[in-house]
């Protein structure tokens, strides 16, 4: 009886040992299987290179060398940092591991966003400068000339590019600014000895203005209203609209 129990226990112990060995073998084989599978899968993966800032042609060549597909353009975006046609964004991001042959999606640059030149003709140059800057534009060359049509100094007469023209952000707008009316000068005529009315008429014809008229007695002049002196003096250059003061004769000393 006791021998029978010993035989049974020995058989059970042997079976248990076999099961344990079998379980260990199975676990080992599973580990080997997963390691091999991981190695195989990883061997079919590549790391996505960084193609941002590259032209589409360069990006294609880089991806092909990395065993990836030709980039797919998903769209375009304005970008001041990269020229037109250069990659500005990619999916997946650089450094991501993907399967060989995978297509990489990209957005390419449309260049700097275009703007429209506002109409600033007739505005003061001091007001136009901040207005242009708020639109991402810059003031270029400022040229100043005299203008009859824009008599106020500092008014913008014209600009290039013209109003409504499409330009890139940061474009320079050249301004033509008024210096006011043209400066016209005359040679002051000699009006001494003329009758006052004649002298006044001549002054107005020359685009000048009559200022103060003083009366003064002169023993050498027997008639009243004769011009004795003038300011400015004869021969001086005077601007249009300058004031001319007269001294005319009086028949009495008082």
Written description of the protein model:
- There is one protein chain.
- This protein is of the alpha/beta class.
- It folds into three domains: 45-109, 2-Layer Sandwich (Trypsin Inhibitor V, Chain A); 114-178, Trypsin Inhibitor V, Chain A; 185-250, Trypsin Inhibitor V, Chain A (2-Layer Sandwich).
- The chain is built from four helices and 15 strands.
- The strands form six sheets. Strands 2-5-3 form a three-stranded mixed β-sheet, with no helix packed on it. The protein has a three-stranded mixed β-sheet with strand order 7-10-8, with helices on one face.
- The longest helix is centred in the N-terminal third of the chain and has 42 residues, at 2-43.
- The radius of gyration is 49 Å and the shape is rod-shaped.
| H/E element sequence | HEHEEEEEHEEEEEHEEEE
Globally, the shape reads rod-shaped
User: Which structural class fits the helix and strand makeup?
Assistant: alpha/beta
CATH architecture of the largest domain: 2-Layer Sandwich
Would you state the CATH class of the largest domain? Alpha Beta
Strand count, sense and barrel status of the largest sheet are: 3 strands, mixed
Give helix % range. 25-40%
Unreliable residue runs: none
Could you tell me the strand content as a percent range? Answer: 25-35%
| Major beta sheet, strand line-up | 2-5-3
Summed up, the domain count is: 3
| pLDDT averaged residue by residue | 86
**Assembly classification:** single chain
Report the end-to-end length measured between terminal Cα atoms: 174 Å
Computed CA radius of gyration, to the nearest angstrom? 49 Å
């Amino acid at each position: 009886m006791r021998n029978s129990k010993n035989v049974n226990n020995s058989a059970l112990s042997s079976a248990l040992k076999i099961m344990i060995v079998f379980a260990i073998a199975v676990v080992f084989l599973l580990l080997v299987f997963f390691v091999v599978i991981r190695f195989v899968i990883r061997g079919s993966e590549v790391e996505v290179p960084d193609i941002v800032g590259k032209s589409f042609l360069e990006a294609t060549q880089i991806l092909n060398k990395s065993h990836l597909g030709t980039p797919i353009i998903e769209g375009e975006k304005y970008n001041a940092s990269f020229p037109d046609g250069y990659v500005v964004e990619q999916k997946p991001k650089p450094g991501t591991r993907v399967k060989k042959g995978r297509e990489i999606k990209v957005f390419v640059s449309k260049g700097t966003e275009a703007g429209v030149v506002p109409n600033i003709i007739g505005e003061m140059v001091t007001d136009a400068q901040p207005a242009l800057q708020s639109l991402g534009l810059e003031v270029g060359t400022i040229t100043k000339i005299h203008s009859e049509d824009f008599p106020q100094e500092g008014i913008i007469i014209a600009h290039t590019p013209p109003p409504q023209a499409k330009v890139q952000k940061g474009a320079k707008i050249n301004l033509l600014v008024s210096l006011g009316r043209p400066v016209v000068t005359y040679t002051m005529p000699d009006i001494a000895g003329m009758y006052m009315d004649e002298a006044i008429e001549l002054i107005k014809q020359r685009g000048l203005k009559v200022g103060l008229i003083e009366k003064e007695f002169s023993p050498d002049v027997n008639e009243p209203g004769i011009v004795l002196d003038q300011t400015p003096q004869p021969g001086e250059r005077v601007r249009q609209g300058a004031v001319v003061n007269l001294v005319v004769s009086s028949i009495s000393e008082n």
